[in-house]
Every structure is written in C-alpha cells, then in structure tokens.
Amino acid sequence: xxxxxxxxxxxxxxxxxxxxxxxxxxxxxxxxxxxxxxxxxxxxxxxxxxxxxxxxxxxxxxxxxxxxxxxxxxxxxxxxxxxxxxxxxxxxxxxxxxxxxxxxxxxxxxxxxxxxxxxxxxxxxxxxxxxxxxxxxxxxxxxxxxxxxxxxxxxxxxxxxxxxxxxxxxxxxxxxxxx
Length: 179
Description:
Mean pLDDT: 92
Radius of gyration: 18 Å
Order of helices and strands: HHHHH
Number of helices: 5
Strand content: under 5%
Low-confidence stretches: none
Shape: globular
Number of domains: 1
Number of strands: 0
C-alpha cells in the first residue's frame, strides 16, 4: 500500500512540476504574441475582473489564516480551497485578456513610476515562485500530509498573500490607463 502511495505522490509531484513550468512559459509566450485574437469587446473588462479576483483572494487568504489560528480546520479548508479555485479563475482570465488585448503601458511619471515597476516586477517574480509552493501545499493538505502542509505554508502563505495584494496595487495603479 505504501508503494502505491509513493508512486501516486511521485506522479503528483511530477504533474505539479510540469504545471509550474508550463504556466509561466505559456504566459510568457502570450505576452510576446503581437497578433491578438478578437473575441469581442467583453475582454476589455477582464482586468477589472482580475483586480476583483486578487482582492477577494487577498481577503480569503487573511480569513483562512484567522480560521486556522482559531482551529476551525474545516472552514479553513473551504476558504483556502476557494482561494485556490480563484487562482485558477484568475489564470484563465489573465490568459484570455493577454490573448485578446495588447499590454497596457503605465503612464505615471517620477517616483510613482518606479514604485509601480517595483510592485509589478516583484509581483511577477514572486508569482513564479509561489505557484509550485501553493500547488504542493494544496496537494499535501488534500492527501492529509498535514505536517508537510504546515512546513510549506510557512513560506507559501506570505508569498501568496504578497502576490495577491501587489496584484491589487498594480491593478489600481494601472487602472486609469486601460482603454
């Protein structure tokens, strides 16, 4: 039985590794594509949906932390699963937007411009780091490997929260420049 579990865990870790590499590659390719697909004007609202998703995710992450500190494990599990699901919805919206619309340039000047790019670059770099951490943390919780889950979330949680919050900040700063 342990051998079967180890084989399943290895396959799951391989899948997580593939997804952790494939997602950033697909996003990078999408950002580089100059010819965009026309799916209609509705795609122009996607940045606002993405901003809302990041806001809700940030709130859920903080609430999930509160719940686990209160030992409300089942509620914590539901809240964190919703945050995880929103991550998937975010990814779909993000890909759809960048597949159909050119990137928006930030128009601010002076110090605020440097601040925006610091937020944006740190957000992007840490989003690359957090994806495999969150996938593993969620997997460990799913298979009831709670000690591994706890050890990993010490790193995954603050990075995920930072990425979510900086996503909101970047959105609010670039919002006036969306066409």
